[in-house]
Amino acid sequence: MLDELRKNMKSILSDRRYQHSLGVEQVSYDLALIHGEDVLKASIAGILHDCAKYLTDEELLQECDNNHIEITEIERKLPNMLLHAKVGAVYAKKKYKIADESIIKAIEYHTTGRPAMTKLEKIIFIADYIEPNRIMIPNIDYIREVAYENLDEALKISLKQTLEYLEGKGQLICPKTKETYDYYVNQ
Ligand SMILES: [Fe+2]
Ligand SMILES: [Fe+2]
User: Fold this and answer.
1) Model's pTM, two decimal places?
2) CB 125 within 8 A of CB 147
3) Which ligand is nearest to the CA of 24?
4) How many domains are contained in the chain?
5) If I label 169, which of 78, 81, 102, 105 is the partner at 20 to 30 A Cα–Cα?
6) 137 backbone dihedrals φ, ψ, rounded to 5°
């Protein structure tokens, strides 16, 4: 199963994106093992999380239309950044025949997170941030260390840095990311 999914991802994603997906798969597996989550579910969600990232903005908007996915104002402005997660969740279900809803949700929320995330959702979110190909992220080794100890703590740091990065670049920020951060800071 995983081999088949890897082959699929290799054939549709750029090499860089494919290597990233393999990295997320591996780190998701490790985090699942350490934190007592299902390693197969984590691996599947990890390898598939960016399965719609190769689509253009127009294609993502079109796919949302085709699949009756609601689009928020900010998602319409940043389709590549935000909608690849929602469309990816639909692809996982329809194209890759993933029936497990917890895997679908982990893909759907891998970019913004959401308040009260499941363990699997946290694992994919964090793995996406710290996988070995991510080398430009500040404090990356520290966050990796934290992730193997405490998922919520790693989540908070990742969200905080993501928000700071986007603010620093003057980029639009999805309210969901902010909402997730506020939720975990006030935990
Ligand atoms: Fe992504
Ligand atoms: Fe990713």
Assistant:
1) 0.97
2) no
3) 2
4) 1
5) 105
6) -80, 130
